[in-house]
Amino acid sequence: MGLETTPASGFAGLRHWRHDATAGLQVALLWMPFSLGVALASGAPAIAGLISAIVAGLLYPLLGGSHVTVSGPAAALAPVLLWGMLLLGHGDLALGYPLVLVAIVLTGVLQLLLSALRAGQYAAMLPATVVEAMLAAIGIMIIVRQVPALLGAPSIPSKSVLDSIGNLPQQLVQAQWLVAGVGIVSLGLMFALRRKLNGLWRWLPAAIVVAGFGVLASSLLGFDAKLRIAMPEHVLDGIHFPAFAHFLSSPDLWLTMALVVFTFTMIDGVESVASVKAVDKLDPWRRKSDANKTLRAMGVCNLTSGMIGGLTVIPNAVPSRANIDAGARTLWSNLYSGLFLLLFVLVLPDVLRLIPLAAIAGILIYIGWRLCEPALFTRMLAIGRDRFVVFVGTVLAILLTDLLLGMFIGVAIELVLLVYLLMPSVRLVLTGRMDWGTSSRLLWTNFTSMFRSPVIKHRSEEHAGQTVHVLTLGSLVGFNLLPLEKALARLPQSDGVRLRFTESARIIDHTAAEFLQHFEEEAAAHGRPFSVDGIERFHAFSAHPLAARMQEPHIAQRIAQRDERAQQMAALAQRLGLAFAPQVAAIINRHDFVYLRRGDQREISNLMHGAWAGGQIRLFDYSHTSAPDYHVPHRHTLMMYELPADSTQPDFVLTPGHYLERYLVNLSERSDVAAAPGYRLYMPPGQGLPDMPPAVLDALERFGPLYIEIRGRVVLAFCPQRELEDAQHTEMLVTLATALADHSAVT
Q: Domain containing 535 — which CATH number?
């Protein structure tokens, strides 16, 4: 029996109500100030944000499409909503708000139509770098537009970020420094509380702490009503209806409305797919969302939200991460968050009115910072210079134009870059080794290959009684991934897959590399044979495992320069008689370890591997990102040891304290380990307590707090309190493997 089973979806998932209700409460505490801030940043009444969050919470679980994703208003769409409001209202927010509600309703209708046509899958064709650049640009917009509110200066709505920057000098001279003090402290608290603390702080989102501080500050300092959030006396007074009559009687608005609806639908679709994909990677059970069902759910939510005065609704990465970290199991956590939010609105309207705008601005600036922080630019450069060019170019294009046009420019930059990379060298023509006609035909062939199905041939083979599908591929980029994805989806899930890149394949871009990695992870999770042939002939643009790569025989593969860490580990590997590979690679969680499900951007390097004590051992440096710093890697040295074939070691997880408790579900038996105080032992139901060998207990005492997980005779161990181990501590992990092997043999 495994350590966990995947939580059921649909109504069967209601059995996880304790976990989902607890997570829903924490999400609701985050949503309350967050949705108020999104509404204010959009130029809409504050109550509009709460309405959309409540509607999404109550409806989304009934419509499905994902598993632990939370939907509601998004900070990323606030600049788009403000732009639409100013455009439709000719600069008048009061006039533009009811018209934007019309646009939101029409967007919902269009989303329902697109979901019926199964168009949700096409949003995934947008280059991943362009999507991340869009979010980074939105983060910069949020920061620029919230600086005046943070300092107590009057707001001047503007359609572009350049106008907002131009308005800053005249706004800042009107700053109120008492209010600015509250705003700056609020922003400082958001950064100070970004890491999970112990006790009650562990359960309170930083945003609700900041909102509480704001309420206290505004009460003590006697802030005027115009410096605080405006809330209606009664909830029903906050409901506004779309101005359909005004729209239908104003033909001059029809073309503008079409542009706004198209923009909303485009940004909604792209951001929804990006958020759902990001959350799927963080889901501890690696469940896969349905893009078309999600699009249909968002259509219903937007239609309903717009009809009663709410904002646009999309799957939202920020509360979704909080939802997962709070231990949510199913989509029903949305329902509980919606119910808690409704309760807060009904019971606490007077408290909400005391929240100062400066505190909300602090929350929004922090969110904007998380979307565009320097670590994101550093990560793009690490993936490859080509990604950095596309990323920075798209960010600048969006800031200098608008979101929609900037995204199209970003896609154009991606295309131009691919064309340049695939273009035959002019040197070949100038030196007479190729004529212009041949060069032009080759360029055209390479260009059109980016939009044709990459699958050249499909055949089946039998290996050891199992069917393996061999797909021969040409160039693979984001623009032609969909045919491959469909071809793979048609194959029986129990059959193996082998992808074989031909010599005519020229390029595998970053988006395609991400797809291959995720497919390999899914195959490993289901025990499905999967391999990729021919990729070793490609020249990687960087050492990053998701870097783009080209097949150019005349370019020698890069010889990795070993840094000091790699040299130390290489010397240790030689002393232990193990093979050594310093290259950075994506880790595939073939044994479904709970620890290796967490976070994102999971990579290994400095791998030592080989036979050891009758089994197989692997030691490596492991890095991943997790909440709240999803751009900052966490590093540890891990030991993975496959016990000898005759081992009878049972499955269990031994953790220091309550480490990873939220991820260790469906383990009904857990207890303190008498022989190892401070540790907790997790086992499948009905399994007896394992016998801890003295050498393991000795290692727990001497080595420090250890995390040990055993699944199917494979051991994973590391020290959570330390990062990369030195040679001495790494050898102690090897000693632990020897002790487990000896104990298993005796048992």
A: 3.30.750.24
